[in-house]
Design goal:
The chain is α/β, with parallel strands linked by helices and about 240 residues long. It has a single domain (about 10-120, about 155-235), classed as 3-Layer(aba) Sandwich (Glutaconate Coenzyme A-transferase), CATH 3.40.1080.10. About 25% of the residues lie in helices and about 25% in strands. It has helices spanning about 10, 35-45, 65-70, 90-95, 105-120, 180-190, 230-235, and strands at about 20-25, 50-55, 75-80, 100-105, 125, 140-145, 145-150, 155-165, 170-175, 190-200, 220. Strands 1, 2, 3, 4, 8, 9, 10 and 11 form an eight-stranded mixed β-sheet that branches. Strands 5-7-6 form a three-stranded antiparallel β-sheet. Helix 5 (about 105-120) packs across helix 6 (about 180-190).
Length: about 240
């Protein structure tokens, strides 16, 4: 099945109000800036998609990427590990005003919750957060003399990720650390949408180099010269 779409609007146009959206990236590394930009542009024109739950390592920086989504008023809830950044104004202002909800998740737990969803594991136990506010209300069990907190899998309606190379069937490779959460999110989301720097024909990627198999990818759009979040921040850009 050919999963390539003509443009970003065609790839993202059916993301609905209230959707849960996983967004790849560790800071700017692997952040799908162009996919995010398409959602922001559509929201400004139509008021949709809004009331989103966004799942990411952080809550954005400056006026780019996830921070720009929050600034636009699209995001109702953040699920992340680091809501603070070097310039967290967008999230901080809305959180203090009670206009956005936060689910704080330790980073390793966040990754494992996403991985568990992709593997079909509804819950697991971890010692992380035991005895803290983050564990309140969660089941606790003792194993070999140590206490563990039960965490639930974390699924999403949509994953937006950035790849270095894709073939038309959806097999992906990544550029070094830009890989981060993307392979896990691709497995945990009902629909995975990818922006790739280059798209090749099937067979154009050595099977030994495939990181995300095409079975986990639904749509691909080529973005030959993707923008980098840190560069945009240095330039004072707004999205």
């Amino acid at each position: 099945m050919d999963k390539v779409r003509a443009d970003i609007e065609a790839a993202t146009g059916d993301i609905r109000d209230g959707a849960s959206v996983m967004i790849g990236g560790f800071g700017g590394s692997g952040a799908p800036i162009e996919l995010i930009g398409a959602l922001i542009e559509r929201y400004r024109k139509t008021g949709s998609p809004g009331s989103l739950t966004v799942i990411n390592n952080n809550a954005g920086n400056g006026a780019i990427g996830i921070a720009a989504m929050i600034d636009a008023g699209m995001v109702a809830k953040m699920v992340c590990s680091f809501p603070r950044s070097s310039d967290p104004r967008a999230f901080t202002e809305r959180y203090l005003a009670g206009r956005i909800e936060l689910e704080l998740v330790p980073q390793g737990t966040l990754a494992e919750r996403i991985r568990a969803a992709g593997a079909g594991i509804p819950a697991f136990y971890t010692p992380t957060s035991y005895g803290t506010q983050l564990a309140e209300g969660k089941p606790v069990a003792e194993f070999e003399g140590r206490h563990y907190v039960q965490e639930r899998w974390l699924k999403a309606d949509v994953a937006l990720i950035k790849a270095e190379l894709a073939d038309r069937k959806g097999n992906l490779t990544y550029n070094k650390a830009a890989r981060n959460f993307a392979p896990l999110m691709a497995m945990a989301a009902a629909t995975t949408i990818v922006q790739a720097r280059r798209i090749v024909e099937p067979g154009g990627i050595d099977p030994e180099h495939v990181v995300t198999p095409g079975i986990f990818v639904d749509r691909i759009v080529e973005v030959a010269e993707p923008k980098q979040e840190e560069v945009l921040l240095r330039e004072g850009a707004k999205q």
